[in-house]
């Protein structure tokens, strides 16, 4: 199990300006939905944005603390 704060800190280490919202989808804290807002995503494709988030969460994905992940990656201007 992983907490929303820990997920946020993993992401913010990789994407320092990120605003992160974490939602537990099943009540078990291993199926998560994350919304990440960062200007680092400007001029990046959706796939590249998702890659950045997956890279940030590599350790908890590999050790099983996160089983499923839904990602919304946006820029501060809504893009």
Descriptive notes:
Strand 1 and strand 2 (31-37) form a beta hairpin. Helix 1 (4-14) packs across helix 2 (46-56). The chain contains 3 helices and 3 strands; from the N terminus they run H-E-E-H-H-E. It is an alpha+beta fold and 79 residues long. It has a single domain (4-74), classed as GMP Synthetase, Chain A, domain 3 (2-Layer Sandwich). The mean pLDDT is 96. A 3-stranded mixed β-sheet has the order 1-2-3.
Top-tier CATH class: Alpha Beta
What's the CATH H-level homologous superfamily?
BolA-like
Instruction: Calculate Rg over CA atoms.
Output: 12 Å
Count of discrete alpha- or pi-helical segments spanning 4 or more residues: 3
State the shape: globular
Task: Supply the key terms.
single chain, 79 residues, alpha+beta, GMP Synthetase, Chain A, domain 3, 3-stranded mixed sheet, 3 helices, 3 strands
How would the blueprint of this fold be written?
Elements: H1 4-14, E1 19-24, E2 31-37, H2 46-56, H3 58-62, E3 68-74
Parallel strand pairs: 2-3
Antiparallel strand pairs: 1-2
Helix pairs in contact: 1-2
Summarize the structure.
It is built from three helices and three strands; from the N terminus they run αββααβ.
């Amino acid at each position: 199990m992983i907490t929303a704060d820990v997920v946020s800190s993993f992401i913010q280490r990789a994407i320092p300006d990120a605003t992160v919202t974490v939602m537990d989808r099943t009540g078990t804290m291993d199926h998560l939905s994350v919304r990440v807002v960062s200007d680092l995503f400007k001029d990046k494709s959706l796939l590249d944005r998702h890659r950045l988030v997956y890279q940030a969460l590599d350790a908890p994905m590999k050790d099983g603390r996160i089983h499923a992940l839904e990602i919304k990656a946006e820029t501060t201007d809504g893009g």
